Amino acid sequence: MARVITVGVVDDDRMLLDGMRSWLRDVPGLRLVASTATVAEFLATTCEAVDVVLLDLVLRDGSVPAQNIRRLRAAGSRVLVISTVPDRSRIVSAVAAGADGYLTKDNDLPTLVAAIEEIAAGGTAHSPEMAFACAHDDDPARPRLSPRELQVLLDYASGMTLKSAARRAGITVNTAKDYLDRVKAKYQQAGRPTYTKTDLARRVREDGLDGC
Question: What pTM does this model have?
Fold first, then answer.
């Protein structure tokens, strides 16, 4: 018997919350377990880690999007950001903070379900908006990093061990090391030599990846 994917929704649009409940109610293999208006409320009302949380990028409570993503990831959930607009800088910032995917709200149910299933399986939901943003970050001094490279960089540079960063990303330690080696090589090619964990943390601060 296939495992049921648990899903949560954090959005302060009541019509969207009602729509999500209706949309997901009868989808085989998915179970909506919580829907709230804020991340704080979501974390306070869910007793166990939810597999995938659909997170509205900008909430009216004034919370910082990157912090919301990190709080949900720290609670053991993977995060699919949903937004009304495909803003490139917001997409890059969300991925840097640990989001596993980014979809605009005009996508249909099959696209949403496919993204949830991909993320629950440990992958990344590569929407056209997300792929475009990651490929067109126009700062010439900032290397173009893949979503997984960004995630491992941010976690490792924040103080995690490589093993912990790998576990959080759902990959092996060797794969995580490969990602970090690629990150270092890309910074080297950009004329910004990066060798140590301290160097990586400095690059995160310089590129604003820790304060999105």
Answer: 0.65
